[in-house]
Amino acid sequence: MMNVNENGTGSELLDDVTEEMILDPVAADLAEMQVARPPRRDLPQMMRKIPVTLTLEVGSARISLEELMSIGPDSVVELDVLAGEPLVIKVNGTAIGRAEVVVAGENYGLKVIDLDGLNLDMMTS
Fold this sequence. Notes:
By secondary structure, this protein is an alpha+beta fold. The chain is built from 5 helices and 4 strands; from the N terminus they run αααβαβββα. It holds the Pfam family FliMN_C.
């Protein structure tokens, strides 16, 4: 193993890694996937089969009853979220993160951006 303090700046190590990644793009892709993959969460066996409802909330609007009564088939109701902003991911009604809408085959799907409110680690301790 090379000690950076004794043998230089450490750029030699970076050169080796860069050369390996250029020579073997499959290894580079695998390394990138491993970095991007979230840590595995081990739930107790009895909790793994508990069903939850995952929803993606587009936004909301606060309107009067009068405005609600005037809504028809061609009505447009402005929501409180800007176009292009990430949407809220909820599990059983509780916000756990943000996501974007994607197309998954013939259905819509969600691409997770962050999971700030999801703390399964507390459940496993």
